[in-house]
Design brief:
It comes from Maribacter sedimenticola. The chain is mostly helical. The chain has one domain: Glycosyltransferase. Helix content is 56%, strand content 5%. It has a two-stranded antiparallel ribbon with strand order 1-2. Strands 3-4 form a two-stranded antiparallel ribbon. It has a two-stranded antiparallel ribbon with strand order 5-6. The N terminus is likely disordered.
């Protein structure tokens, strides 16, 4: 009996030891699986555009919270990144990219077409930008609510307050002011919407009004000496940031000019070939490209305040650099400007990778040295001074940089 009892105890101990070993082994294997999954957040062999798209989804699983928001909102920053992700989807066919864009629309547009957090009466041009994402979804898989939401955005533009010459105010609370930003926010969407949904007479009115916005920017905001553009123009000349003689703001802000350049290369996708304004905008783009390459830094990127690289406090900035790179690449690829500008675009993208991009162990990429925000007027008041522009918050992965980064990467097939 003692011998049998001893053998039983030994056998039991051996079985326990084997079970413990198996548990440890299983736990270790599960840990490795988790680590492997984390490492595969962004595939190592993917292109830069796909890397950034997947990185943004990883950072912001809820697309309504893009731009580090704590609550869902309808905003231009969401629309900008989602438009870039749409373009990546068209290249890759990755369903998770489409689903991410759809998730935003599904959350923000109610069944009756009401847009959550949107207020038409604010007449804010920034709020038009997310319409591009909705237009794209409607082309893929139509839903009545998406069309109703776009009708609302069109209605806003139909009633948008204007300067005496017909230039859109940037927002109702910024009276008589045209900002470079506004053309990118509103005009590509409005052109697409008009061509798709309006009758010919109305289409012509919309296209004429779109071209007028570019004509007025050229008339009022372009500096003939440098070829650069001032961030804002106040027709009333009442704003403290505005020159009392010209109504112009003080400086050439990188991202402000970036918005305008992207507006030009994108609107040309939709302007009818026979419209006389098309050739004018191509000429504006040629002048623009000639100017910005003169201010490209040796390392390929651009300064926050474009024409003052040696002034203390100025810095090489990521969002404007991504925008300029995209504008030069797309303009050259489309034949609007000389193919020689591809050299500048490639130099720009190389500079962005070298100076601004970092890669985490799981493959997620970061775009650093982004100006978080800049504007004119408001409360607290933004005076448009050099010190103002260089002292605004600098952060990583601002959507105003990550979106154009994807645009540029796609145009250069990097």
């Amino acid at each position: 009996m003692k011998k049998n009892h001893f053998n039983f105890r030994v056998t039991s101990l051996l079985l326990c030891a084997m079970l413990l070993l198996n548990c440890k082994t299983e736990k270790k294997e599960n840990t490795n699986d988790k680590e492997a999954t984390e490492e595969m957040v962004v595939p190592e062999n993917s292109k830069w555009s796909e890397k950034m798209a997947l990185s943004e989804i990883h950072r912001f699983p809820d697309p309504t919270l893009l731009d580090f928001q704590k609550e869902s909102r309808w905003s231009y920053t969401n629309g900008l990144v989602l438009q870039a992700i749409e373009r990546v989807y068209e290249q890759t066919g990755d369903q998770k990219l489409y689903d991410y864009v759809y998730d935003y629309a599904n959350r923000m547009i109610k069944e009756d077409g009401t847009i959550v957090t949107y207020d038409l009466t604010s007449y804010n041009l920034d709020m038009i930008k997310s319409g591009d994402a909705i237009f794209w979804l409607q082309e893929k898989n139509p839903e009545p609510r998406f069309k109703m939401a776009m009708d609302t955005l069109h209605k806003q533009l139909e009633g948008q307050p204007t300067t005496s010459e017909g230039g859109y105010w940037h927002k109702k609370r910024y009276p008589y002011q045209m900002w470079l930003d506004g053309l990118f926010m509103a005009e590509p969407f409005h052109a697409k919407y008009a061509l798709k949904y309006l009758e010919e007479v109305e289409v012509n009115k919309v296209i004429d009004h779109i071209v007028l916005q570019f004509d007025l920017i050229e008339k009022h905001s372009r500096d003939p000496k440098t070829g650069l553009y001032f961030h804002g123009w106040d027709e009333s000349k009442e704003q403290r940031w505005a020159n009392k003689e010209t109504g112009l703001s003080q400086h050439f802000w990188s991202r402000g000019m970036g918005w305008y350049g992207m507006a030009m290369v994108d609107i040309l996708d939709y302007l009818p070939e026979e419209h006389p304004g098309r050739e004018r905008i191509i000429n504006y783009l040629k002048q623009y490209a000639e100017a910005i390459v003169q201010y490209q830094d040796q390392g390929g990127t651009w300064w926050q305040v474009l024409d003052l690289p040696d002034r203390e406090g100025n810095y090489l900035e990521a969002t404007g650099s991504c925008m300029f790179t995209y504008v030069l690449a797309k303009g050259a690829n489309k034949g609007y400007i000389s193919s020689d500008y591809l050299v500048n675009a490639k130099k720009g993208f190389d500079g962005i990778l070298e100076q601004f991009v970092t890669v985490e162990d799981n493959g997620v990429i970061n775009l650093n040295k982004c100006c978080g925000v800049a504007g004119l007027g408001g409360d607290p008041y933004r005076d448009g001074s050099f010190d103002y522009y260089v002292n605004e918050i600098i952060r990583s992965n601002d959507p105003k940089g990550t979106g154009p980064f994807m645009f540029a990467a796609l145009e250069l097939d990097r």
